[in-house]
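## tool: complex_structure
## caller: assistant
## args:
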Amino acid sequence: MKGIFPIQQFEGIRTPFYYYDADLLRKTLQTINDEANKHQGFCVHYAVKANAHPRVLRIIREAGLGADCVSGGEIEAALRAGFPADKIVYAGVGKSDWEINLGLEKEIFCFNVESIPELEVINSLAGASGKTARVAFRINPDVGAHTHANITTGLAENKFGIAMRDMEDVIAEAVKMKHVKFVGLHFHIGSQILDMGDFEALCNRINDLQNQLERHQITVEHINVGGGLGIDYQHPNRVPIADFHAYFNTYAKKLRLRPGQTLHFELGRAVVAQMGSLITRVLYIKKGATKQFAIVDAGMTDLIRPALYQAYHKIENMSSDEEKETYDVVGPICESSDVFCKQIDLNCCHRGDLLAIRSAGAYGEIMASGYNCRQLPKGYMNEDLYE
Ligand SMILES: *Cc1c(COP(=O)(O)O)cnc(C)c1O
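## result:
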C-alpha cells in the first residue's frame, strides 16, 4: 500500500497522530451541497461531536453548513470557528443552566428539547434574561435502525427524546409558556445507517405525526431529521464519499413537507469519517504459537471505536511493499479489548513501519482519552503539513 500517503511529510511528527485530508473533506462538502440543493428547503448542519478540530470546523463552516451541538463546549467551538449563531442548533438530554444561558445569550437558532422539565427550565431562564427561546421537540419515533445496538437512539427503550404519545401534551404546555416559541420537530434514529429503508420508516412516522398535529391546526416551521448516514468502512479508497444522492432523495420522495416548511439534517460521520486516518508506528512484531501480533504505538485511548463498538477500520502498511502476512494489530494499553483488528493481512511489518488506520475522521480524535497517562493524539490537516 506504499504511495497513497505522503509519508516523507510525516517525518518528525510524533506518532500516533490523526491525518486529515482537506481535499477529500471539501469534495465531500461539495457533494453534500450539490445533492441537498436539488431539493427545496433542505438545510444541512454538521454534527460537531464527530470531529471538532478547529481546522475541520472552519472548512465545514466555509462550505455554508450550520452546526448541530450537544453541549455548551460545542456551541463555543462552533462560534469560535465562525458558524453564525442563527445556524446553530443545540440538542442533548441533559442541558445544564450555563449551557442554556449560553444558547440564549448567543440567540442560537433552536433548542432541541427532550422533556417537560427541561422546557420549564428553558422558559424560566429565558424569562430571567428577557429572551424568547426557539424550541423544537425531539420526538422518539420508536423506529429501529439496522446498526450496532449502542448507536441506535430512536427506540422507545432509549433515553432520548419525548415519547410520541406525550407529544401533544408537551406541545400544549409549550404553547402556554411565555418565553419559548415552538418552531419544530426533531428526530434522530441512530448512526452508521446504510439501509435507506430505515430513513424511509422515519419519514412515514413523521408523516403520521404531522397529520395528527394538523388536526389540531398545528404546523411547524421546520422538521429536523437528525443524521446517521453511514459510510463504507470496508472500502475507504473505492467509496470515499457516502451516498448523499440516495440519502437526500429518500427524504425528498418519502417525507411530505408542508408549504414553506424547511427540512434540516444533522450529519456527522458521513461528513468527516473518510477524510481522517490514525497514523501509528509499529513498535514490535511478536510471534506466538499460532499467530503474530503487530504491536503499535496507538491504542484504544486514541481510537476507541473498535473496543467500544467492535467497529472495523481498514489498516494499511504505508512503509512496506513486501508479501502480505497475517497479524492481529494491537495497542499498548493494559486492556484486552485494546485491539484494532484481528487476523488481517498487511504487507510484511517491521519495527518502525507506519500504519494508517483508515476512516477515522469521525468519533476518533474527539473521543480520545488520557487513560494510562497517555498524551492526547494531535490532528494535522494535510495542507498545513505542506507549508
Ligand atoms: C450524533 C448525532 C448526530 C450525528 O450522527 P451521525 O451518525 O454522525 O451522522 C446528529 N444529531 C444528533 C442529535 C446526534 O446526537
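## assistant note: The first helix runs from residue 22 to 36. The two ends are 25 Å apart (CA to CA). Handing back to user.
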